[in-house]
């Protein structure tokens, strides 16, 4: 597996004026019925009515929400550069001595008045309140949470300081570090600093460094040994911090290991950290802590990490930063592999003058810069071994240009020991109304991704080092609740399909689902399970040749399943629970449990077993379920 290694990226590019990159951006040829009006606002005409881009930007975006932090005589001055903004800031020292560093918040927060607040230190860090002896050390890291006037947490930042008053702000890692793409002899270390600076990573007596000063750091750590624990130290300016990680075994190793799976971490009600700037921080951290307690070697998390559907790249990057913050103490030890869900989109909304009309939404373009797929690639580090895009397919309206969003880092595979994990994007180029605007319905896999899946499955089937194949998706092949009306089922109706430049694709949703089943089940001995996350529950389903998979009266061609396999759904990362609804296969579901939950799959050579836990209470959901 390969990952893009770059040290040239910036933290983010903001698009605050409009939902699109710029008024009048070229409309992709794959869309339909879209144009610009005289005010250069995007419009669509449907049912005799005209719908116009509302041009609404996200309220909070990176890097603006981080604020400007400067040293003062008695502390650190935070300026959000938002005149008239009022709220509070909770803050406290980061426990840098802990194996999993976290903030020890002070008993009192401070007011944000007119967009400004003082993080007082001189009078605060004294005697019993100075647990980490910051007054004596004259240096450390503060964490701070921006909380709006309603009490909702918006963002959590970091700032390093030196001095004993006056205080000086020094370069800080504001995101990470996170280990990614962990292999037997290499891995990728990613982190971000609030100012451009050159950093070094020392591991096992060797040093890796940035080529030049940057804010986004992605360093390929090579030459390490398989199945070995390492301490790595990141140095920047006068600061340094150390963490531990363990490399993967050689591909084909049959030594036992456990991996974790959970998805759908977006915010819910209930107050506090359940809605932490768009993500459920409380449940996300509980899931990761439970996985670490069970010695998981990686977490697979596919889709709906945040509320998403943002109108700007900066707004979505802020929500992603909050999601990463929840998992951050553990992500420095084990990798988190992420995939796209239906909330990982960036969209603009078009409405008519009649408020009773719901309107339409369109993925932001140019796709290479502001789409949900492009923003996902900016935010995360995943293997780069998937297809490029849907460009080049038979339905490509303009073969000389890139007309579709990228698959870079959102469709990929990786191996660990004797398993292969294939990660698909079931929400690619997602549209709620493909027949009107063009686009892809939820759960539908288009031709180029399907071709790649077929080829990758065959490659893994022929690989003697691989014994078990998992296919990771967001929209379930066999949904059980709210997503029976979409995902890969669409209430059993084959009508739903992608529409390109006004032309529907030949194969409908059920036909394409069956093609995926044929490739994964009938044409593979090693395929074991689909891991899905769109339904907000944990549930376990064994599919056999006798399991009904079509609605009553379905008249299309039917696929005969050749052998048993599994659909393990864990959308228990924190979103509001979904109850089971009626489906042809509902009688076969087991262990239905609301969030937060974590699935734990243990591989012991030729044998695979499933356990699952309620993440907050650690109560078992199922134990030692034999999969193979």
Model description:
Helices cover 13% and strands 32% of the residues. By secondary structure, it is an alpha+beta fold. The strands form eight sheets. A seven-stranded mixed β-sheet has the order 24-25-26-29-31-30-32, with helices on one face. Strands 21-20-19-33-34-35 form a six-stranded mixed β-sheet. Strand 27 (499-500) and strand 28 (503-504) form a beta hairpin. Helix 2 (281-293) packs parallel to helix 3 and helix 3 (313-331) runs parallel beside helix 5 (372-379). Residues 1-21 have low confidence and may be disordered.
The termini sit apart by 26 Å
In the sheet with the most strands, the strands line up as 24-25-26-29-31-30-32
The low-confidence runs, each spanning 5 or more residues with pLDDT under 50, are 1-21
Number of helices: 8
- Strand elements, count: 35
Biggest beta-sheet profile = 7 strands, mixed
Structural class: alpha+beta
Strand content is: 25-35%
What best-fitting shape do the alpha-carbon axes yield? globular
Mean pLDDT: 93
The rounded Rg comes to 25 Å
Helix content: 10-25%
């Amino acid at each position: 597996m390969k990952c893009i290694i770059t040290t040239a990226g910036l933290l983010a590019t903001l698009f605050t004026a409009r939902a699109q990159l710029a008024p009048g951006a070229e409309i992709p040829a794959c869309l339909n019925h879209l144009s610009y009006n005289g005010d250069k606002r995007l419009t669509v005409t449907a049912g005799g009515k005209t719908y116009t881009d509302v041009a609404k930007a996200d309220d909070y975006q990176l890097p603006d929400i981080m604020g400007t932090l400067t040293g003062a005589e008695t502390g650190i001055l935070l300026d959000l550069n938002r005149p008239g903004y009022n709220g509070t800031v909770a803050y406290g020292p980061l426990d840098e001595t802990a194996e999993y560093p976290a903030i020890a918040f002070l008993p009192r927060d401070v007011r944000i008045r007119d967009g400004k607040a003082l993080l007082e230190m001189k009078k605060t860090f004294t005697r019993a309140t100075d647990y980490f002896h910051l007054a004596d050390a004259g240096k450390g890291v503060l964490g701070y949470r921006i909380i709006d006037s309603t009490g909702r947490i918006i963002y959590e930042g970091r700032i390093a300081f030196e001095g004993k008053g006056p205080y000086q702000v020094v370069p800080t890692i504001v995101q990470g570090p996170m280990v990614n793409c962990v292999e037997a002899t290499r891995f990728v270390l990613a982190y971000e600093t609030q100012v451009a600076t050159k950093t070094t990573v020392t591991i096992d007596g060797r040093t890796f460094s940035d080529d030049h000063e940057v804010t986004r750091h992605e360093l390929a750590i090579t030459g390490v040994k398989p199945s070995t624990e390492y301490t790595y130290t990141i140095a920047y300016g006068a600061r340094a911090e150390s963490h531990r990680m363990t490399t993967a075994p050689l591909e084909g190793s049959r030594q036992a290991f456990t991996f974790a799976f959970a998805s759908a971490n977006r915010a819910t009600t209930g107050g506090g950290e359940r809605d932490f700037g768009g993500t459920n921080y409380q449940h996300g951290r509980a899931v990761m802590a439970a996985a670490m307690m069970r010695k998981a070697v990686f977490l697979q998390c596919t889709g709906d990490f945040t509320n998403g559907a943002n109108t700007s790249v900066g707004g979505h990057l802020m929500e992603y930063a909050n999601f990463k913050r929840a998992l951050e103490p553990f992500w420095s030890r084990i990798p988190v592999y992420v995939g796209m869900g239906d909330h990982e989109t960036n969209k603009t909304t078009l409405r008519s003058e009649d408020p009773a009309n719901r309107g339409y939404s369109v993925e932001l373009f140019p796709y290479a810069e502001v789409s949900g797929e492009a923003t996902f690639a900016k935010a995360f580090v995943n293997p780069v071994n998937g297809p490029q895009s849907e460009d080049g397919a038979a339905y490509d309206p303009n073969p000389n240009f890139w007309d579709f969003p990228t698959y870079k880092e959102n469709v990929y595979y990786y191996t660990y020991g004797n398993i292969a994990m294939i990660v698909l994007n079931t929400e690619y180029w997602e549209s709620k109304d493909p027949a009107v605007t063009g686009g892809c319905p939820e759960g539908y896999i288009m031709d180029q991704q399907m071709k790649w899946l077929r080829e990758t499955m065959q490659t893994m089937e022929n690989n003697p080092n691989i014994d078990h194949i998992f296919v990771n998706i967001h929209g379930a092949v066999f949904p059980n609740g709210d997503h029976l009306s979409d995902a890969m089922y669409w209430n059993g109706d084959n009508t739903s399909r992608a529409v390109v430049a006004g032309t529907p694709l030949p194969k409908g949703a059920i036909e394409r689902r069956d093609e995926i089943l044929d490739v994964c089940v009938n044409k593979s001995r090693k395929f074991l399970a689909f891991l899905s996350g769109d339904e907000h529950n944990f549930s376990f389903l064994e599919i056999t040749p006798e399991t009904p998979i079509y609605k009553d009266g379905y008249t299309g061609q039917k696929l005969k399943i050749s052998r048993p396999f599994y659909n393990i759904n864990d959308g228990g990362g924190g979103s509001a629970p979904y109850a089971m609804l009626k489906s042809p296969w509902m009688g076969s579901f087991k262990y239905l449990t609301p969030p937060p939950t974590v699935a734990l799959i243990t591989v012991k050579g030729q044998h695979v077993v499933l356990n699952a836990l309620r993440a907050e209470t650690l109560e078992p959901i199922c134990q030692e379920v034999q999969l193979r």
